[in-house]
Design goal:
This protein is an alpha/beta fold. It has helices at 43-50, 98-101, 142-162, 179-190, 201-209, 223-230, 245-253, 277-282, 295-306, 325-333, and strands spanning 4-10, 18-23, 31-41, 60-61, 66-73, 85-88, 91-92, 112-113, 125-129, 133-135, 169-173, 193-198, 214-217, 235-240, 255-263, 286-289, 316-321, 341-345. It is built from ten helices and 18 strands. Strands 3, 5, 6, 9, 10, 17 and 18 form a seven-stranded mixed sheet that branches. A six-stranded parallel sheet has the order 13-12-11-14-15-16, sandwiched between helices. Helix 8 links the parallel strand 15 (255-263) and strand 16. The relative contact order is 0.15. The model has no long low-confidence stretch (mean pLDDT 95). The structure holds zinc ion (2 copies).
Length: 347
């Protein structure tokens, strides 16, 4: 396919990306050309623009949370057909390293992420390996399908890592685009009593409106004590979606004995745990990281949403055309805009 298309391109770190015209890419062997219909702007895109996360090269087309329609198939692809509605796992694994061979594709030694390692999906068209493309059920619209591939799949993976069981208690630190979905999955799928914690009033209001059973403002310096009191001794699992060493420490300290703290927030600082070593042992606490998601997480979520077992209300808070990317970026940066997930669309 020839011709030009629109693409949101980052040219240099520290400067917002701009909408430019570039050639439509050709799918290579084993790849698929997707016509983008929706692609969320992730909080991590802000880190890429600021430069705290580096891209493999510049310029780079942004965007790693897409849904769309299969437009063309590269050589050797027979698992998909043109015109098919799909979502895309934006974590492109090599498929052959030791970790990939053990099924841990999210930990691939040569992991290449859309919009970071290879051109992303904030464009009219983009290419990905066929193995990253998953059919989208008709019951799910393109914007929701898009955010399932990251904003909902990332907390799903973290929840599965936590080993949480039905009827337990959980603290969710950070109620932005990831944490709010974690709270909703925990309540709807695991009947977990959730305490949502954030410093941002708009995020707390969103959480209340979306049915999170209990919310606590983290500016209240008694937050750990409050969690312990409310759960009669501490939560079974805590989730860190903030990206702060201090919050990791809070997560550990609000656990009951045998509890697990899962960290999905990213920050380059070293952990400095206030917790005593003897407490870690005496309470048999577990601290673990959780990176991204797998095709299985996305496939399971698509099934759960299409059959009505999971519903996320209006967490797609903004849908904007590709031409309006800058408005979406500004909304995400504005603390009082109540933006949960901003999704860019194209026809
Ligand atoms: Zn993301
Ligand atoms: Zn690999």
């Amino acid at each position: 396919m020839q011709g030009l298309m629109r693409a949101v391109r980052l040219d240099s770190v520290g400067v917002d990306p701009s909408l430019v015209e570039v050639p439509v890419p050709e799918p290579g062997g084993g790849e698929v050309l997707i016509a983008m219909r929706a692609c969320g702007i992730c909080g991590s895109d802000l880190h890429v623009i600021e430069g705290s996360t580096r891209t493999a090269h510049l310029p780079m087309t942004m965007g790693h949370e897409p849904s769309g329609v299969v437009h063309a198939l590269g050589a050797g692809v027979d698992s998909l057909s043109t015109g098919q509605r799909v979502v895309v796992n934006g974590l492109v694994a090599c498929g052959s390293c030791g970790l990939c061979r053990h099924g841990k594709l999210n930990l691939c030694e040569r992991l290449s992420i859309l919009g970071l390692g290879r051109d992303g999906a904030h464009a009219d068209y983009f290419t990905v390996p066929a193995g990253n493309v998953i059919p989208l059920p008709d019951e799910i619209d393109f914007p929701l399908g898009a955010i399932i591939t990251d904003a909902i799949a990332t907390p799903m993976h973290a929840i599965r890592k936590s080993g949480v069981q039905e009827g337990q208690t959980a603290a969710v630190f950070g109620l932005g685009g990831l944490g709010i979905h974690a709270a909703m999955i925990l309540q709807q799928l695991y009947q977990v009593e959730v305490i949502g914690i954030d410093v941002d009033d708009a995020a707390l209001a969103n959480a209340r409106r979306l049915g999170v059973s209990s919310v606590v403002n983290a500016r209240d310096d008694q937050v750990i004590q409050r969690v312990r009191e409310q759960t009669r001794g501490g939560v079974d699992v805590a989730f860190e979606f903030v990206g702060s060493a201090a919050v990791v420490d809070q997560g550990l300290r609000c656990l009951r004995p045998g509890g697990t703290c899962v960290v999905a927030g990213v920050h380059p600082n070293r952990l400095e745990l206030g917790l005593r070593q003897e407490t870690l042992v005496a309470r048999e606490l577990t601290l673990t990281g959780s990176l991204g998601f797998t095709n299985e997480d996305i496939t399971d979520l698509l099934r759960l949403v299409s059959t009505g077992q999971l519903a996320f209300g209006d967490t797609v808070s903004h849908t904007l055309d590709l031409d309006e990317y800058q408005i979406g970026l500004d909304a995400l940066r504005q603390p009082d805009s109540a933006a949960i997930r901003v999704v860019i669309t194209a026809e």
